[in-house]
Amino acid sequence: MSIRKAAMKSTLNQQIQQFYDASSALWEEIWGEHMHHGYYGPEGNRKTERRQAQIDLIEELLKWGLDEGTQTTKILDVGCGIGGSSLYLAEKFNARVTGITLSPVQAQRAGDRAAEARLSENVNFQVANALEMPFEDESFDLVWSLESGEHMPNKIQFLQECHRVLKPGGTFLMATWCHRPLGGEQGQLTDAERRHLAQIYQVYALPYIISLPEYQAIATRVGFNDIDTADWSKAVAPFWNLVIDSAFDPAAIFGLLTSGPSTIRAALSLGLMSQGYEQGLIRFGLLRGTK
């Protein structure tokens, strides 16, 4: 890696860390422990309480990605946030779960939440880079990535690492922000679409996103088997309008004023994501593979 690329990667990691250090407490206060989309039925027309919709997304993802009766005892949660999925999966499967994040604030809060839930013996959290995971080869039965792939500056290296730490017979299960597929009638991204994405990248500390077919090609290249994908954009799209509505809650307004410029920018730019879904530019992609 060149010095310039290493510096860019380090700067991005710092931006991601600072964004989540600053915004996680406010998100938990307003939305709770799950820092991801909700699920509102296949067509996105199901009326569901917002926190339940986030739990529904976890359950629907497991139902989609794991065979019925699958036993998993060691799970890695890549991009664990404040431990929402980690604690949920630990209880559901009576499994040992390791969560990693770039944010020390998130790791500390996730650990505190594990202690409050009396799950500290089953769950541990650490600050680690998903592109250079501090784990031995073939360490986990399930590698879980719920909305962290979009933050990865090297998608190939990310999937290589997930494949490396997965046990033979284990499952990799990912949901991530994507842009629309390229080619066909729509062709390549237009200049307007690129500008729209560039604004999202700046606000949410993202390097870039890719299409779901590109993820599938990478998964094949790095050695995953039994690969399957799905586009759940309709099912999750209502989430962003609900987040926009919640931003007018008095507690949210007060929290924003004290949370720092990056969180305020993100709140003021929530419409970028809802518009992206409406235009078909932003997609919510799922990918599973085995080893």
TrEMBL record:
- Positions of the region SAM motif I? 75-84
Determine the domain of life of the protein's source.
Answer: Bacteria
Q: Which Pfam families match?
A: Methyltransf_11 (PF08241)
Signal peptide residues are: none
Q: Sorted alphabetically, which keywords does the UniProt record give?
A: Methyltransferase, S-adenosyl-L-methionine, Transferase
Question: According to the UniProt record, where is the region SAM motif III?
Answer: 165-174
Q: Where is this region: SAM motif II?
A: 138-146
User: Record's PROSITE patterns?
Assistant: SAM_GTMT
Look up the record and give one Gene Ontology term from the biological process aspect. methylation
Question: What GO MF terms are annotated?
Answer: S-adenosylmethionine-dependent methyltransferase activity
Every copy of the Methyltransferase type domain together lies at: 76-173
- InterPro entries xrefs: Erg6_SMT_methyltransf (IPR050447), Methyltransf_11 (IPR013216), PiNMT-like (IPR025774), SAM-dependent_MTases_sf (IPR029063)
- Which PANTHER family does the record match to this protein? GERANYL DIPHOSPHATE 2-C-METHYLTRANSFERASE, ZGC:194242
Q: Hey, which family's this protein in? A: Belongs to the class I-like SAM-binding methyltransferase superfamily. gTMT family.
Give the protein's recorded name. Cyclopropane fatty acyl phospholipid synthase (Unsaturated-phospholipid methyltransferase)
The gene that this protein is the product of is: cfa
